[in-house]
C-alpha cells in the first residue's frame, strides 16, 4: 500500500511570476512509499495547514459523468465523496475558492468550492478564468520544441547565438534553459523586483528589464552542473522563440498551440493588460509579493492573525504579470488546461520524433534520488505508486496557485487551482490539495498527516 506523506515539488512558484509565477517554490514534500520502495514526488507547497474558512461555510458544487472505475489502479469515484474530500481540504487551508477538474476513463468530475470573490457568492467553475503562472512554461517549452521540429533552432545551440550579453551565454544551451540547468541568477529572487511589484503593481515589464536584473548578478553555478528552478531560463526562451519564430509569443501560442486544440479560453495578455477575461476569479495572498516570489515564510504573528481572521488577504487580481510573460503570464481555465496537458503528453502537439525527445529530456532534479522528481522540457514527472505516474507542472504567483497533470497509463487528467497563493501557515494551496485528490483517484493509497514542507528556492 502506498502512503503519500509529503510532496516536494519545486514547482514554480517561480515567477511564480506574479502571473504565473513560478519561481522556485517552497514546496511541501510528498513522499510516496510504494511496496517496492520509497519514491519522492515533487510538488510545490509550503508549510502547514489552517483550519477555518474565510467565509464561514464555503458553497460547493460538483458535477460528474460516469461512476465505474476502468481498472484496478483507479478508485470508483463517487461524486459526493469526491466533493466532500475537496471541501474539507479547502476549508482546512482557508481557501476562498478552488476548482478540481478530473477526467478519467470512468467520466469527468468537477469539484468547485467557495467563491471567486471575497464578500460575494460567485462559485467558481471549470470555465472560470485564472492566472496559471508557471504552467505557462509548458506552452513556452512546447513552442520551443516545435521550432526545433521546424529546423529553426537546435537544442544544442548556445544561447549567445540568439541573445547577446548573457553571462556564460556561449556555454549555455537551449536544452539547459529548458531543463533548468543554466546556472543563471533567478531574477524573481531579487528584492527589487518584489519591491517594485508592490509599489507599482500596474507596471508593464519587458523581458529585457527582468533579464537585466538577472544578468547584474553572478551566475549561481556553471552551466549543466546542477538543477535549479529558475524563471530567467524561460524569459530567455520567450525571447528566442520570438526571434526565430518571427512573431510575438502570444501570436505563436495562438497559431501553433491554442488554436489547433480549440483552447479559446487561454491567452497570453499584452504587457500593459492587467485584466482577466470574464468570467474570472479574483486572486488573494496574505502580505506583500515577496512571500510568493522568494518563499519568505510568514512570521508567527502573521499566521496567527490570518487564522483568526483579523488579517485579511490582499487582492492581487490585477497585479501586472508581464514580469513573467514566457515563464508565467498566461490565463486559462481548468477545462482548457485539462485538454492541454492531455494533448501535450499524449503526442497531439509534437511529431513522434520530437515527442520522444520531449519525453527523453527528463532528468532527476537530485542525482542522488534517480527515482524522485524529474524535470525536462517544461514538464515534471514522478511515479507515486506501483501503478500510477504523472507528467505535471505547477504554477504560483501572488493571488493564484495551480497544478496540471496527466497520467497516460491510466488516462487521468487533473487540474487543481485555488485563488489563494499560500495558506495562513504558508502551504502552497493547490499542492496542498493534491494528496487529498490523488487519494480519491488511485486505489491502494492512504494519506498520512502532511509534515511541514522544506522551503526550496
Identify the notable features of this structure and list them briefly.
alpha+beta, 13 helices, disordered C terminus, AmpC-like, Beta-lactam/transpept-like, hydrolase, protease
CATH class: Alpha Beta
The outline comes out as: globular
**Proper CATH architecture:** 3-Layer(aba) Sandwich
Based on helices, strands and strand pairing, what is the structural class? Answer: alpha+beta
- CATH level 3 topology: Beta-lactamase
Distance separating the two termini = 32 Å
Tell me the helix content.
25-40%
CATH superfamily annotation: DD-peptidase/beta-lactamase superfamily
The largest sheet, given as strand count, sense and whether it forms a barrel, is: 9 strands, antiparallel
Structurally, how many domains make up the residues? 1
Give Rg in angstroms: 20 Å
Mean pLDDT comes to 85
Describe this structure in words.
With 457 residues, the chain is an alpha+beta fold. It contains 13 helices and 19 strands. Strands 6-8-7-18-17-16-15-14-13 form a nine-stranded antiparallel beta sheet, sandwiched between helices. α1 runs antiparallel to α13 (429-441) and α5 crosses α6 (231-245). The chain is globular, with a radius of gyration of 20 Å.
Describe, in short, the structure shown:
Residues 84-429 form the Beta-lactamase-related domain. It is built from 13 helices and 19 strands.
